[in-house]
Request: fold
Amino acid sequence: MDNNDQYRRNFLKFLLASPLIGYAGVTKASDASKLDPDLQFIMDLKKELISSPEDALNIFDLEAVARDTLPRAHYGYIATGVGDERSQIANRQGYRDIHLKARRMVDVRNIDMSVTLFGRKWASPLAIAPTGHQGAYHPEGELAVASAAKEKGKLMMLSNVTSNSVEDVNEARGEPVWFQLYARNHWPSNLKLIERAERAGCPVLILTVDMVGASYRETQDRFMKQDDRDCAACHGEVRSPFRGRPMYDGIDLDAYLGAGERFDWGLVKKIKDTTDMKLIIKGITHPIDAKLCVENGVDGLIVSNHGGRSQADSRGTIEILPDVIKAVDGKIPVMVDGGIRRGSDIFKALALGATAVDIGRPYLWGLGAFGQAGVERVLDIFDAELKLVMQQMGVTSIEQIKSSSLALPRGFAKS
Reply:
């Protein structure tokens, strides 16, 4: 038995103890067919890996390479949800429970997938969500993602815990990205981050509000135990997602980190009074909060539960979306993320009222597998699948996608 086989055997033992197995209803290897492709890797450890991004038939082919290539702890950071993984699983299950009702006898030779956000037209409704620490998945990190976004004409959102500065990412992208902010209860630090993003030309600021308090990322911790590298060699003795990140140059990190989180409408007013950037709030999951966003002058929303990484026992974001759409009543754009793995998922989100959709884990799989080329392949696969679904459903533009195309599960509200 070679080292790789021994690793796979140990890895399988670890995964069999994971809550992902229990909540997928899998108790033995013969039950692997019950798994969503997101979780199929748990049993399918001998799958032949692709050798180039062009060989990928779907995004899960790229996930398999990333899982095989990345250090265990780094892959675990992508894979993890929170607690027993019910929120992450709910994100996927929500899409699986919705079915499509096709229309026929429609000329679908010419498909227009374009959408417009804040006056900027994009070729498709697929956007790159903000995710941090991308240097952990590829040496070029966010620069590779930005180059892929430039090549494919995609909207890119940049986390403030980026491995590369916003200035360098904007240069690689060829135009300013949207900038995401983790605000703390220390206004001088928040202000420096906001002003730097605005100086860099970023047109939109995204305030993430769903990371309140700590979250129990048990799956991540399990992966870390499988990683026998000396983490201190890269992270130092005190590991922090903020220290050493380029966007925190000149910021008093002790004061910033020591202040904790505080999200209220006073913070929103301060931000609105400080910057001319459009303000989007990311992490809205309740219609009352959505309505208050409109009343407090917020320019857009992202329905998100942080990919199942923050709140335990969250509903899937696709289930939440209709209530939020109804609450904003068309006054501001609403985007959604969490659990989007197929072009049909994009179609379902658009049919329920989303203006656009954001992906996180999938493009990180592409990045970890093949760098920029892997990210480009992920974007191409999603766009190709969406175009195909639109043709199958008999719609030729995003505006034609309506909830009447969906067969919704009993009890599922729609806007």
Observations:
- The chain has two domains: 3-99, 102-214+240-407.
- Confidence is low (pLDDT under 50) at residues 22-33.
- The chain is about 40% helix and 10% strand.
- The first strand starts at residue 99 and ends at 100.
